[in-house]
Amino acid sequence: MPRAESYLSAEERRAKGKALRDAVPRLSQAGWKPPKGRRDPVDIICESSVGRLENLIPIRYGRMSASPFAFYRGSAALMAADLATTPTSGLRVQACGDAHLMNFGAFATPERNVIFDVNDLDETLPAPFEWDLKRLAASVVIAAQFLRLHDSDAAHIATDVAREYRERMANYASMRALDVWYEKIDVQRYEDRTGDPKIVAAARKGLAERIEKEQRKSVPDFLYPKLVSHEGGRPRIKDDPPLIFHPTAEEAPGLVSGYRESIAKYRESLPEHTRVLFDRFHFFDMAMKVVGVGSVGTRCAVCLFMAADDDPLFLQVKEARASVLEPYAGKSIYRNHGQRVVAGQRLIQTASDVFLGWTLALDGTHSYVRQLRDMKISAVIEDWDAPSLRQYGRACAHALARAHARSGDAAMLSGYMGSGQSFDDAIGEFAVEYADQNTSDYRAFVKAIRSGRIRAQQEE
Fold first, then answer.
1. What does the pLDDT average to over 128-137?
2. What's the rounded Cα separation, in Å, for the pair 11 and 21?
3. Is 321 exposed, middle or buried (0-12, 13-18, 19+ CB in 10 A)?
């Protein structure tokens, strides 16, 4: 039987990926030198604040000014502009768009398993695969600097992150398509065979304790009394300004109607079987909530729904703006950026929140919706040493490779990267040199604050 014209074997696709090296050699991915006429980094940061809530922008800048690592977390738009000036392989995937270390973590699936994956996809968009990997590798170096690790350790860990990504992608290239799609990173069974057994054992013990702690923080027993008070017998989210506050009708169109229109649009975005579950809950209250570093100033809210007096549901409604990659990688195919985030999340993650959906506010704000907390476990890096950072960086690289293998062509990606260390060394070199650029940009940012060019508010 003749095969379909579009069909290529894995070996043929690997060969196509390898052929791309002629136009974009792997060594061209190495190093970083700011291009002539590079824009003022502070101007780009300020542009990324346009359209945010004015009173929260100083909080955003205050959080970014805490360290070069915090600055890096909040400056995805700046790095996107820089990455667009570097050579690109032409191999596109559903990119995370902001793949730094702190945007990976563990969370519970609808089946209540705890998996490790990319967990922040506000900037997701189809884009060159190496943009994500370079941002991840650079974040490892910047984290190492934050931890005051030796420069040689930082460089070796960044190269090891690239190696882990490349080797994982080679494995995915030889796997069946369904096996790639079904694979998940189970944190309770995860093993890094190249890691120090003592470090692995300590990490496993610490993770088990974190999981147990998060399991105890069930919504009725922990989150509900922490966030809710009763006024006149009716539950209401507690104000804690400026981080949690109830909006005015001007700040949140739809307040008068109880957000009926936006809730209806959100409901339509859910699968039919989830609508049956959602319909058991009734809306009671909504308050604005300041979250993250890069997201500060965007419209983020917490909504309280109740199915019974002791049966609450907290949903986080987060504004979805155009991806920072869009000016360089092309516009999204989705009219609603909330839908863009949800579609990207469902494609990248092994399992997503059962209540994941999107909506549109009366003022035209695009948003996506998910549960506020569902056993979400983020890294706490402050007391890490080099082996701990190395192990975590490798886990992130594994998750990123799995995400890219789901949306891209693993065989072509593997063919381009090859089986040697050339690609690893190139990415590692870029990471080290871009970390220096980040330090320089951070200093310019702090100088702008001190001169009064921009205003930052430090939190207590």
1. 98
2. 16
3. buried
Question: Is 229 in a helix, a strand, or coil?
Answer: strand
What tokens does 78 get? 């700046």
Q: Quote the CA–CA distance of 188 and 112 in Å, as a whole number.
A: 12
Span between the terminal Cα atoms of the chain, in Å: 71
Which residues, listed in sequence order, are joined to residue 358 by a DSSP beta bridge? 368
Residues in CB range of 404: below 8 A, 6 or more apart: 93, 94, 129, 132, 169, 410, 413
The 3 state secondary structure assigned to 378-399 is ECCCCCCCHHHHHHHHHHHHHH
Reading the block at residue 215, the tokens are 């399991």
Strand ranges, E, within 232-391:
234-237, 244-245, 282-289, 300-308, 311-319, 357-360, 366-371, 377-378
Asked if pLDDT for residue 156 goes beyond 80, the answer is yes
How many of the other CB atoms lie within 10 Å of CB of 188?
13
Give SS3 for 33.
coil
**Count of all residues that appear for the chain in the document:** 460
pTM of the model: 0.92
Distances (CA, A) of 342 to 96, 296, 317, 347: 12, 20, 12, 9
Bridge partner residues of 229 (DSSP):
236
- Say if residues 410 and 172 touch (Cβ distance below 8 Å): yes
Check if the beta carbon of residue 320 is closer than 8 Å to that of residue 341.
yes
Confidence of residue 322 (pLDDT cuts 50, 70, 90): very high
pLDDT tens for 83-110 read 999 999 999 999 999 999 999 988 877 7
Q: What is the pLDDT of residue 263?
A: 94
Q: What percent of the chain has pLDDT over 90?
A: 70
Supply 343's token pair: 């579609």
Cα angle: 69, vertex 319, 375; to 5 degrees: 65
Enumerate the domain spans of the chain.
10-215+380-450, 217-371
Round to whole Å and give the CA distance between 224 and 154: 42
Place of tokens 């594994």: 398
How far is the CA of 448 from the CAs of 31, 46, 52, 60, 78, in angstroms? Answer: 27, 11, 19, 14, 16
Cα distance between residue 140 and residue 432, in whole Å:
9
Please give the Cα distance from 341 to 321 (Å, whole number): 10
Residue 298 DSSP symbol: B
Instruction: Tell me what the mean pLDDT of segment 259-270 comes to.
Output: 94
* pLDDT value of residue 1: 41
Mean pLDDT of 293-308: 88
Nearest to 71 by CA among 386, 393, 443, 380: 443
